[in-house]
Amino acid sequence: MPNLFFYNLKFNFMSNHIPGYTYGQAATSPVSIADLDLLKKTVLFGDEDVQNLRLAGEVLADQTDEILDLWYGFVGGNTHLVHYFTHNGQPNMDYLGAVRKRFGQWILDLCQRPYDQDWLNYQQEIALRHHSTKKNRTDGVEAVPIIHFRYLVAFIFPITFTIKGFLAKKGHSAEQVEAMYAAWFKAVTLTALLWCQPYIKEGEF
Ligand code: HEM
Predict the structure, then answer these.
(1) I want to staple 200 with a disulfide (CB 3.0 to 4.6 A). Which of 4, 26, 79, 205 is the partner?
(2) pTM (whole model) above 0.85
């Protein structure tokens, strides 16, 4: 238990100091808990996945910087992706840096938070931040106004595939790594699809 105590301490300390991170303060999601339950069933997300995500969170907690270096390298190396952090063709380094901090927190949240009403509400907030409704507002930047829908879905693969090596770094068995990997894949699919909501016509989500 002491480990969990110190983890929570670090977790709370970190989240309180991330600019623009408003977990617990977001408006109510248009997606209900009942809808979420059916989506969980559809991606075969069960109690064992919750446990495997908790373990993944422990494994990944001190690797978030390395993971973000990899993902940012991927975005930075692709002009069609870094485009979304630009204004008049120039990448905004402050914007990239600000989002990176919240992205690090997201890795922990995906693994450790209960998928309750607060979690659902923050998924909708992140959805709006990718969509024209709220993009750029959190960091007060001028940049392209929307992340196109197609890339939100396409990102599921790289965000999933690249995590396996990090999950395998702490000496867990091949079965444990596979189980964490499957849980991560389901969780990323679930969140990315929730982030699609603002892009879909009323009544069609
Ligand atoms: C599975 C897909 C994706 C994941 C998991 C992801 C993850 C995240 C996270 C965690 C944040 C910060 C959320 C917060 O404010 O607390 C964020 C914001 C952002 N992401 Fe994504 N993202 C995805 C797709 C994309 C794609 C395809 C792009 C295009 C390059 C992108 C560019 C951005 C930008 C520009 C922001 C800042 C939005 C704002 O102005 O607030 N993301 N993303």
Answers:
(1) 205
(2) yes
